[in-house]
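User: Hi! I have a protein structure encoded as tokens and I'd like to know what sequence might fold into it. I'm fairly new to this, so please keep things simple.
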């Protein structure tokens, strides 16, 4: 099959796969976009790529780059997200090329694909950056005009200028040759010094060690004429490190080049963000308490009722035996619910040791063997021998894997299949991937973003199983995602850093 025929034959499949990957793999911003929009942009991009690959016509891709740049800038997308989106075209197309083409035709198609994406990403990056810089430049020029206007007004009286500078709440200072030659009252108060203790000292004396390198880059390397805004930690006289926002600009002070800065204390803002996170945590605890009270009440009532009945009996036969079985089942269910809730509420302490992911898989399957055999399920393992030993908490990872397996076992009918795959990360090799998939009913595609949320609706249990999986994986510095399988089923992929 030649390249043109291949692209026409698989156009719809390429567009759907590209849009699906955009929606699930790139970033939260793409996940928030409507699927119809993604299908539209991938379809237009695919037609533009076809024109480049088959006809050598770059006009369509140039127009598409201009269009998508305006769309993504308006939506606040970072450059890297859109670069990844373009790069996904290669990921989608490569398997088709390898399957349908061979020999010189395949090599020629691969060369054209690489050239096309190289041109597209470079052209887009340059255009995106230029438009972004234009916005920044216009904003900076507007600020400069405002500063120039104010400067002209303040130049009428140095006394008025000094009064104005001294009365503002933000710290204002001037640095020449690495030393502070001017500082207003607010700057001195922010750092806990008197004005005479500040003038003439190196500006680095007022920067916390953790931020020193970053601040030096701005003042000694990157500080340009249009100003740079950054966040750092200032050093207070009493030794505290406090979050601060600073804008630095190159000026001429008393006839010599200098760096002028305006710093603002953002301790309150940072504290507010912390309180918001704490409020969210408390909200979760509130949900936990509500669920705990609800789930415990029914099992305990059942146990209490049956105990009262059995106290009146002498022999445990017939219905009495059944009542005892009900008690055992309810108690087991109660223990399982409590354990999930406690796992959710408490932090995840880790005991990291060099461990094989494959050994964790084998240990988990050994624990679940009876349940799997009882339900008549098949397990297919594809465990790569190249997966290295990595630092992880084997017990915690086994707990996470068992939670995923329990979800699959619960929904699979007799004869269903579970597949477990381990491998090194395909992108950079610095991650170890563990993928568990099944051919069960899955979940609606619209529910995928919420499957790891606490108390995600399910028929039994608390809905905390996958939440705890996410906590454990993220505690290892990894990430976890859910995806749908074709034609049916669901997959959970855990990626753990391959730390030695």
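Assistant: Happy to help. Inverse folding works backwards from shape to sequence: for each of the 500 positions I chose a residue that suits the local structure. Here it is:
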């Amino acid at each position: 099959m030649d390249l043109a025929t291949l692209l026409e034959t698989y156009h719809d499949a390429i567009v759907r796969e590209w849009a699906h990957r955009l929606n699930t793999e790139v970033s939260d911003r793409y996940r928030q976009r409507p699927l119809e929009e993604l299908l539209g942009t991938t379809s237009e991009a695919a037609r533009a790529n076809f024109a480049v690959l088959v006809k050598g016509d770059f006009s369509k891709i140039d127009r598409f780059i201009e269009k998508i740049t305006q769309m993504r800038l308006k939506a606040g997308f970072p450059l890297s997200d859109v670069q990844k989106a373009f790069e996904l075209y290669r990921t989608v197309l490569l398997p088709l090329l390898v399957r349908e083409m061979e020999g010189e035709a395949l090599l020629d198609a691969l060369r054209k694909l690489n050239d096309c994406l190289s041109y597209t990403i470079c052209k887009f990056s340059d255009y995106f950056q230029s438009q972004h810089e234009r916005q920044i430049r216009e904003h900076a020029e507007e600020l400069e005009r405002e500063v120039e206007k104010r400067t002209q007004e303040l130049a009428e009286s140095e006394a008025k200028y000094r009064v104005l500078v001294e009365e503002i709440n933000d710290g204002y200072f001037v640095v020449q040759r690495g030393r502070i030659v001017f500082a207003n009252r607010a700057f001195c108060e922010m750092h806990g010094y008197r004005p005479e203790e500040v003038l003439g000292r190196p500006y680095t004396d007022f920067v916390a060690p953790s931020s020193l390198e970053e601040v030096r880059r701005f003042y000694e390397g990157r500080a340009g004429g249009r100003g740079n805004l950054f966040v750092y930690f200032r050093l207070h006289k009493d030794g505290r490190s406090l979050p601060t926002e600073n804008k630095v600009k190159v000026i001429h002070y008393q006839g010599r080049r200098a760096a002028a800065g305006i710093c603002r204390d953002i301790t309150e803002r940072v504290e507010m963000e912390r309180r918001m996170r704490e409020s969210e945590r408390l909200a979760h605890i509130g949900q936990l308490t509500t669920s705990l009270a609800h789930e415990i009440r029914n099992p305990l009532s059942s146990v209490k009722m049956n105990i009262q009945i059995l106290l009146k009996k002498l022999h445990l036969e017939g219905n009495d035996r059944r009542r005892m079985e009900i008690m055992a089942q309810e108690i087991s269910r109660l223990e399982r619910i409590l354990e999930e809730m406690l796992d959710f509420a408490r932090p995840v302490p880790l005991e990291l040791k060099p461990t094989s992911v494959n050994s964790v898989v084998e240990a988990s399957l050994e624990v679940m063997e009876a349940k799997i055999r009882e339900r008549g399920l098949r397990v297919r393992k594809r465990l790569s021998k190249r997966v290295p030993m990595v630092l992880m908490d084997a017990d915690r990872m086994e707990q996470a894997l068992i939670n995923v397996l329990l979800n699959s076992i619960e929904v699979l009918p007799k004869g269903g299949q579970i597949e477990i795959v381990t491998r090194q990360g395909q992108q950079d090799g610095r991650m170890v991937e563990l993928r568990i998939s099944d051919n069960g009913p899955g979940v609606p595609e619209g529910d995928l973003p919420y499957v790891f949320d606490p108390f995600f609706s399910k028929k039994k249990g608390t809905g905390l199983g996958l939440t705890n999986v996410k906590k454990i994986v993220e505690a290892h510095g990894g990430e976890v995602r859910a995806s749908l399988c074709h034609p049916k089923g669901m997959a959970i992929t855990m990626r753990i850093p391959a730390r030695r």
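A useful reference point when you look it over: The chain has 16 helices and twelve strands. Feel free to ask if any position seems puzzling.
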